[in-house]
Every structure is written in structure tokens, then in C-alpha cells.
Amino acid sequence: MPSAGERKIPGMTRRWWPLLAGYLVAAVVLAGYGAVSGARRFAQARVTDPGPLTEIAGPVGYFTATLAGAVTLGALLYVVITARPDDAHVIDPPSFRAHRLAEVTAAVWLVAALLMIPVQAGMTTGASGFALLAQGRLPDALAVSEMARAWIVVAVCAAAIAATLRLTVRWVPHAVLLIPASIAVVAPPVTGNAGQGPDHDYAGSAAIVFATMLAITAGLRVTAAICRPGPELSRRISVVLTCGGAIALAYGAMLALLLLDGPADLLRTDYGRWLALAAVLLTAVTAADALAWRRGALTGGYLTGTSWAITAAVAAVSAMAIQAAPRLLNHDYTIWDVFLGYELPDPPNLWRLVTDWRFDSFFGAVALVAAALYIAGYLRLRRRGDDWSTGRLLSWLIGCLALLIGTSSGMRTYGSAMFSVHMAEHMLINMFVPILLVLGGPVTLALRALRPADHDATPGPREWVLALVHSKFTGFFAHPATAFLMFVSTLYIVYFTPLFDTLVRYHWGHELMTTHFLMSGYLFFWVIIGIDPGPRRLPFLGRLAVLFAVMPFHAFFGIALMTMTSIIGGDFYRMLDLPWMHSLIDDQHLGGSITWGSSELPILIVVIALVVQWARSDRRAARRADRHADAGYSGDDDLDAYNAMLAELAKHRN
């Protein structure tokens, strides 16, 4: 671990000043905009003006927290992709600079998020945020401000990151911390404009990708400007910056189409003008990154200049985030706009479930990209002359197709409004999709398809995969007991507590449930039938026992749904008031029947896969024994060695 003296990195201070100056200029501009436009912004949103202090604190605080979060995420990513850990997995001194930067910006992120909680509550309720604190009315304001509650999530994640970075300088924790950093980066955007009004399902999913990619291209750039990577790492960073910027532009354009009320809004509204500025800056920076990628070097002047430009783009996005989007201002809202983002005038049938698609720009894109990457790895092996099972290929592709259907077809469209269809979606995402993906063996394919880094080179993707697969973090979650408890207990925690009532109301809640149930299902079935390398493997009888141990819990869950008299998520479903929904309790009982009846098929698939793997393992063991016998070895090498050791000890005693 670096000593206390190593925490003072020579040369870093003078690299901070130009970037800090860029932040201060942007913050002053936003403060002036907040003061000049405050009364107009709140009048347009039909909210009481909370006063000049909150008018100014809103845009400046949002910008400060967003930029600090982006740099924290970017610094963590910099460590992950550039570090050369030693045998104890401790990062090297050059990447420690990024670690130190992440320590500082995570602390700034935490403070800014804490300040934004009352400020955001004040902007939502039309009261001074500081008055809410002084008068003890903040809890009431938080109850009506979804975005203020999002800042609580940001503060918790930033605190966890800051504390962890003070305790470790190993590579794996930096990779793991990318998860809470990404959650905190997307929490405010998905609860802001993107999470409101018509088509907010499209906008919410797009905001997840846009916010993450913008944070990466901003934070990684600022980190590189401070750490100054060499030529070898410059090309790697240029790839990430270019791809991240291009994706951010694509999803930003999608958000613009959804949140503007027409092209004229680009010039006649403040929101549109800030959007145009952000688009121009991000386009220019991404184009410059593409050229830098070809040159293969990132100079200090280039990094500093583009950091100023991307800081200005983040400031423009922050100015947009603290005011209502044009499409939301004069819209005549229905209850379906508020809770779904689309209309459902007709009841579901097979045709509508198949054809009523609303493409999920997050999970739908994940499914398509995962399929494309797997095919690329498969083709690389085939071109190299290596074999790869066609069954594994088909299993992975069918799993990706099932994920796409479960998150983008009529199953998701009606599943967001009906408990019965939601449970069908749940069973698909939690059981069928993970089984198919696990049988695809993606980690094994990646390890075979990716080229290993040269002996003296910086570790690459193959080494990252190996480090994560064999890490204590993965070992904990892939432990049979942990995977079993997650797979079983969270089913009851989500649906038999008020948690479901909260998650079902929001599109981000549906995305969060999908993420959790997909990952918990994947970990559980990896323990049972995984063909990828892992830190722990039960014997086949043990795996079969764990599988059968799950069955009563799923059966009881389905039966409980079929017999309950209280309605899960009842407040939400009653507010939705679908005209063709005659009985919520009957729909819930139908959901229980779907859960109970559909749990047998995936279990049967797993049992068949497990028996096949068991038989193949026995055949391999028999072939090894035959080879040993042919080579003149006895079949009991361990026993013979043990007996020889005992004989030798007896000889010495005599």
C-alpha cells in the first residue's frame, strides 16, 4: 500500500488549476443564469418561487454534484483500465494518482449531494430549501419530491465510495465501486424530466445510458488530464472516450426528441438553447476524440482543452435538469401519462402481447449488444480454427432474445400495468433467461477469444475478467449459500413488503427489478449448472440438493399469491384504474397461478442439464483413469502414496 508520503503526487497540483478554473467559470455562469431566470422558470412550472438563494443554489449544486460524480466514476474507470497491479493486486503509483483523485471528488460529491437534498425539495415544493431545514418541514417535502429522494441515494453511494477508497488500494474494489458510482450518476436524471409525463418509459431508459456515458466521457477525460497517461494507455483511453461520446450523442438525440415539443423549441426556450449548446460541445469533443484515437496520443494541452469543453457541456445539461422540459409544460396529463407513459385502452391478448412493442433502450440494447459480442467471440474462435459448441451459441442467443422480448414486447407494456403479466415477465427474467445465459458459458468464451496481454504490458480485458472471476467479491456472491439466499429471500422481500408498492410506480423501479432478478437468477443457476470457471463448485449431488431446496419456496410463493386477500401494489393498480380490469384480486391470483405453474419447466431444464453434465464428468474421469492405467499407473495413486509415507515413517521409527 502506498505510504503517506506517496499520497502527495508531484505535479498534480498545477494540473488541477486550469480544470478548477474551468469549473469556477461554468459555476459562475450557472449562478447568473439561476438568478436571472429563476422567477420565469418556476412560473412556467407553476411552482412558487422559493427565493433567490434556492434559485442560484439549484443549478450550481446540480452541476457541482454531477461533475464530481462524473470525475469519481471516470477516475475509478481509469484505475480499472490502466492499472498494473502487483501480485497482491495493489495498484501501481501512476494509477494511484487516479485513486487519490477519486478520493477527493467522492468527498465533494457527498457534500454536494447532501446540500442538494433540501435545495431540490425546495425547488419542487416552492419553498426555500434552507427554510425547510430550519422549520423541520424537510421530511414532508421529501415525501412529494422524488428527485430530492434521489439525492439521498447519491449521498449514500458517494459516502460508500469515499469510505472504501480510504481503506483499500487494490484493483478489484475499484472495479466493484463502478456499480454504486453508476447508480448514483443515473439517480437524479431518471427521476427528473426523463421520468415524467408521456413516453417516460422511453426517456427513462435513454437517460440511464446517456447519463452514464456522459459521466464516463467527462470524468475519464478530466482524470487523464491530471494523470497524463503514456502513449500505450492513451490509445486505450481514446477508444473509451470516442465510444462513450458517440453513445451519449445517440441517446441524447433520443432524449431531445422526447422532451422537446418540436424543433422550434431549440431556439425559443431556455431548455432548447442549453440543449443545443450541449449537443454542439459534445459533438465537437467526440469528433476530436476520434481523431486523437487515430493519432494514438493524448497531449496535455488537448486533454485540458477538451476537459473545458466537456465541463461546459455538463453545465448545460445541469441547466436543463433544473427546469421543466418544454413537452412537459403544457401537456394535458392523464393518470396513464403519470404512471405508465403510454395508453392501454384495450385488454391484453396474445396478439397484443406479441405486437405491442415499446423498445427498452437500456435492456433491449443490452440484449442486442450481448448477442453481437458473443457472435464476435464465436467467429474469432472459428477463424482461429478452434471449436465452440453450437448448443452454447444457440443457448446464449435464445437467452438474449428472451431478454429482449421480456423487456420490450407487450409483456413489458402490459406487465407495467397488470400484476399477472408482470409475474409472467418476472418468471421469464428470473428463471428462463438466466438458465439460457449460464449455459452459454460467456466467461469461458471471453477467456478463449480475448488475447492475453504481453508479459510487460498493461493488463487487458482478459486479465480483468480473470481477476473478477477469482476475486473475493465474486466468491462471496457465487457462494452456494449466498446465491441461494439471494434467489429465495429477495423474492419475498420485494413482493411481500411495501418495496413493491414503490418500485411498481416508476419506470426506473421496473428497470431495477429487472436488473436484480436477472443477476440473482444468473448467480444461482451459475452455482448449479455453470460451465464457466468460478471460485467454488459443489459436487453434483450437492447442486441437485440446492436445486430441490428452492422448489418448495417457489411453490409456496405461488400458492400465497393465489390465496391472498390483500392486493400487492394495490394503491398503484387502483390509481391506474384500467377500464377493462374488473378484479385486481383475480388478476393477482392469476399471477400466482402463472408463478406456480411456470416454475416446473425451468427446474426440469436445469435437472436435465445437470444430469448431462454429471454424465460427461463421469466419462471424462473414466477416460483419465484409462489413460493412467495404460501409462502404468495404479488407479489409487493417492492411496499408494499415503501407504508409502506410512511405511517410510515406520522404517525410521525402527
TrEMBL record:
The chain crosses the membrane at residues 16-36, 56-81, 101-121, 141-164, 171-190, 202-227, 239-259, 271-293, 305-325, 362-381, 393-415, 427-447, 476-495, 515-532, 544-573, 593-615. The keyword Transmembrane applies. It is found in: Cell membrane. It is a multi-pass membrane protein. The keyword Acetylation does not apply. Keywords: Cell membrane, Membrane, Transmembrane, Transmembrane helix. Pfam families: Caa3_CtaG. It comes from the Bacteria. One of its GO terms (cellular component) is plasma membrane. InterPro entries: Caa3_assmbl_CtaG-rel. Its main location: membrane. This is Cytochrome c oxidase assembly protein.
